[in-house]
Structures are given as C-alpha cells and as structure tokens.
Design a protein that fits this description.
alpha+beta; HU Protein, Chain A; 3-stranded antiparallel beta sheet; 5 strands; 39% helix; 27% strand; elongated
Length: 99
C-alpha cells in the first residue's frame, strides 16, 4: 500500500473526503517526525512505538574495491510493533470475548 492508497482507505473508512484524509495523515506524520527529532518516543498502545536510537560509528567495507571505510555514528528511527499489531499480522487478531 502506498500513500495514495492509504489516503483513499482512510477517506473511505472515516467517511471523509480524500483531501481531509491527506491532511490528517500529513499532520500525523509531521507530529511523529517532530517528536522523534526532539528525542521523544511516540507510543500508540496496541499499535507500536516509534523511537530514535543512535547507531555507533563502525568500520565497513567498500564493495567495489574491498577497502575499509569509516561509517559515522548516526541517529535512526525505529519502530517496535505492539502486541495487538503483531497478533493481527500473525492471524491471531480476532475479537475474542468481545461483543
């Protein structure tokens, strides 16, 4: 699913037009990006947690000539899925006991 397909799905399920769905998605993504840039975590209970981790400097190898190169440390975004999302992906996400 790409962004346009996601926007169409949101619009249909929320019964809103595509421009409002696009604005909502863009706002969500902007808020998550801002929080991560500020060093915060974004936790959506049941869905997962977005966070930033620092990947340390390391030595790598240039695939063209095999020479060693230094790879600088950097921050990377990380997503850890929640239990509910993991269960849904693995086909265990029924609504057991709920009416």
């Amino acid at each position: 699913m790409n962004k346009a397909e996601l926007i169409a799905a949101i619009a249909e399920k929320a019964d809103i037009n595509k421009s409002k769905a696009a604005a909502a998605l863009d706002t969500f993504l902007g808020c998550v990006s801002s929080a991560l840039r500020a060093g915060d975590k974004v936790t959506l209970v049941g869905f997962g947690t977005f966070s930033v981790v620092t990947r340390g400097a390391r030595t790598g190898r240039n695939p063209r000539d095999g020479k060693q190169i230094k790879i600088a440390a950097k921050k990377v975004a990380k997503f850890k899925p929640g239990k509910k999302l993991s269960d849904e992906v693995n086909g265990k996400g029924g609504k057991k006991g709920k009416k």
